[in-house]
Each structure stands twice: as C-alpha cells, then as structure tokens.
Amino acid sequence: MTPETIDVIVARRTQPADGIIVLDLVADADTTLPPFEAGAHVDLHLGPDLVRQYSLCGDPFDRSHYRLGILLATKSRGGSATVHRAIHAGDRLQIGLPRNHFPLATDAQQTVLIGGGIGITPLLAMAYHCMRGGKLFALHYCARAHAKAAFLDELAAEPLRSKTQLHFDDGDPAQRFDPRRDLPEPSPDTHLYVCGPAAFMDWVVKEARNRGHADLHIHREYFEAEVDKSGDGFKVRLANSGRIIAVPAGISIVKALSLAGIQVDVSCEQGVCGTCMCGVIEGVPDHRDSYFTEHEKAANDQILLCCSRSRTALLVLDL
Ligand code: FES
Known about the structure:
Order of helices and strands: EEEEEHEEHEHEHEHEEEHEEHEEE
Bound molecules: FE2/S2 (inorganic) cluster
Shape: globular
Number of domains: 3
Mean pLDDT: 91
Low-confidence stretches: none
CATH architecture of the largest domain: 3-Layer(aba) Sandwich
Structural class: alpha/beta
C-alpha cells in the first residue's frame, strides 16, 4: 500500500440492473475508511497500468463502507470489463483516497440533481448529503429502460422516495424528463448538477441555459467524452528545467512528454477526470476537455495534458 491508496475488501457484489454491478467496499482489518464528500470518486487499481475512476454513490455520512455502481461500457477500454469479469465478493483491492472534482455548492438554497444512466452515482451521494442537512433538493433519474436502472429499491424507499422522480425512455411519454417542466426557475440560490452520457448532459445543460440558469450554477461531471485530437503541432517548455519539447500533430502533450522521458499521472485520458491537470505560465491553451467549466477555461491558467492543445506556438508549463 502507498500513502495514496488504501486496501479494501469487496464485502458485497450485486447486479441490480442490466449491465450494472454494485460493489460495497469495506476497510481491511483494523482500519477505517476515510470520510468522503458527496460527488467524490476513487481510483480503482485494477492492474499495473489499469486505474479507473468511479463515483462514490453511498451515503457520505455512513463510513462503514464505500459503494460503487459500475456500468459495463460498450466500448470498455478494459476497466469496466475487468471489474465485471474479475471482481467478486471477498476480493481485496487497492483504491485511491476519495477526491472530489464535483462538489456541492455550500450556499445553495435549492439543489436539483439530474442523472442520466450511470450518471446517477455521484448524485445519489449528493441526495443523501442534502437530505441529512435538511436542504431543499430534488433528484431526477433518467434511464433508457426500467431494466437498465439501478438503485431502484433505494430510491423507492424513504427518505429518498419523496424527493425522487424516475424517467424511463420506454415508459409513458408523460413521465419522461421534460426540462421545461422539471427544471426549476433560475435563481441566485439554485444550483443544478448534471451527470450522464455526453449527449444527455449537453441537452440538459443547453435547456438549463435557455431557461436562464447561470453557467456557474450548472455543475456537470462527464464520465466519458470524445477527444478532438486534430490541430497543428506546437512546443511546450517545462518551467522547472527549461526543457523544450515538441508536441507534433496527432500526439497528446502527455505522449510527447512520455517520449521525452517525462511521466505525467493520467487516468481517464479523455479530459474528464482532472488527474493530468497542470498550471500554464505562458501561452494560451486550446482546451479540449469536459472537465473545466467555461469560466476556468477562460482563465487559461491550467491545462489538461492528456487532451488539450495550444493556441500559441509555445506553452510554458508549471512542470
Ligand atoms: S487523465 Fe483524466 S483529464 Fe487527463
């Protein structure tokens, strides 16, 4: 075990829906699980070069176990397929400490959580957090079909039941998610949280903007994203050593650095997780990620090295 990881045991594995398994992880003997915030995720170490991130979807006030809901991705790059095939109750695993790139706003008077498919997972933890704090909130769970929806027993029981609305694509059209009906009126105290497939999220975010919700109040977490790798080559200079490294067309900064013998921590390699974030000292990044908000992108003082490129011939990185 390294300081950044903890050893856990799979206490329970269930399959509550088509293609989705739920793992309950408990601490190894004589240890306790660190606290986590709603919206946080952990790295699941599945092999020497196989680390994947999954949201913690249990109650943040319950430290007895961590719960993960994992969808078998149709284009799995190895992570979800390995979990579904090879991880069972009783197995020992290493996970990273919880990290939160999708935190709840502390000043919200009203919170609306909108999850599409497996995007429900971080929102479940948020729902528990809001419920425990006596906050005004609503949870919308959109799924393609009833058979593909997990956590239904949990959502059908109090205390979540009265705050939850389910929306199934294969159900009565009247119950489908309708942004004009289901999104609240914008207000300075209202925050929206959206998580799910990119197309679903883009649709919800667009509708929320059209209704007048401020971009800073529309919080989102992408699980996967297409990365546009097109564009010309450029150079990066490493501020600490002064080394200049060429990043050719079609090659990511991470890859170019690796070829030069410099390793950068990565996980998703899709501009989704934030692991490869780096400060920018000079130059203007060409942001290609789904991680930063528009506001953060406009600041141009950070870049995700796995996917983003440069609008200037040279980027000086805080490396
Ligand atoms: S490795 Fe996940 S954003 Fe770069």
